[in-house]
Amino acid sequence: MSSVISLIIPTYNERDNIAPLIERIDGALSAYDYEIVFVDDDSGDGTAEIASSLSSRYPVRVIVRRDERGLASAVVEGLKQVKGQMVAVMDADLQHPPEVLAEMAKVLENGAEIAVASRYVAGGGCQGWGLVRRIISKGAVFLAHLLLPATRGIKDPMSGFFMLDRRVVEGADLRPTGYKILLEILMMGQFRSVTEVPYTFKTRTRGESKLSARQQIDYLKHIYSLMRRKGELLRFAKFCLVGLSGVFVNMGLLWLLTEVAGLFYLLSAAISIETSVLTNFTLNDLFTFHDRRSSGIKPLLKRLGKFNLVSLGGVGINMAILWLLTEHLGLYYLLSNLCGIAVATLWNYSVNTMWTWKK
Ligand code: GDD
Ligand code: MN
Fold first, then answer.
1. Do 197 and 179 fall into the same domain?
2. What's the pTM value of the predicted model, to 2 decimals?
């Protein structure tokens, strides 16, 4: 791998950060040939002009987008324009310490295809974050791990600071929404190995963050879009369909055993509940999670055991909600049950995807 590093830095109103940032990058990458490509979304504060004025002293290029805005899409634009074999992405506001770039370059030289500067591996962290911000951030990571299984091996898929071999994104159809460009690349890129390098996300000293509620909503939209593109939405639909089939098995057998075979209805119920759990398991194993099961009889029995436990939890949740809404909120019991089924379905899906078929 040649040692040319292209840095893509999205900017929006970062006037006071540009000069100190370039100086620190230049110091950190003294052992490498590098270029910096700023992708500026027509900042009103002269960011692009300041960056351009430094291009006589440093290997700096500036791309100005006038019709579009957004951190992640700015990075996609940058990816189309860079030349290096190694491509890094970082923020302009010095919250990402440039010194980590050299460490990430080493990781790529040692064969990894993506190096992620990570807040959530040992040695990493966030400077000056309160409890609420930590919880929101961890919650966002949890949501990605839950809904996009391919991200589960990575502790900080939300990082905006990373370096990759350009082949990872060559030919990838990148259509990110909002801020999380790494998430898009992890889901849509071609690669085998990712290594996380710890770093501390520093507090901002100049300029202002552009993060707002808008980006949180964009994040949810982005996850939804990736679920759709990667077939995870279809997987959830299959899971619901299988659950529905279980209701028919359960009801049908309950009727048959009670009316035709003449069993006491509670005994029929116990048999039909377990039968529907078994048919649900079989269908989910063959159909919903066919790509996520390991072969062999022992793993199969393990999955079956887990699925039974999860279903038991689901029934408990369903009944607790049925009771709570009916007794304490005065809701009609069939409506309460519908709510119970919805929550139990979410529980069943979450725990089964994270545990039973975790891979
Ligand atoms: N071109 C462009 N367009 N750049 C933007 C835009 C935009 O609409 N919005 C923000 N930026 C630039 C900022 O100028 C800065 O360089 C970088 O993107 C990050 O923006 P901040 O507003 O400082 O984001 P943050 O500090 O809340 O979050 C960042 O750090 C997180 C932790 O690593 C983001 O990079 C997150 O993606 C990242 O996870
Ligand atoms: Mn920032």
1. yes
2. 0.92
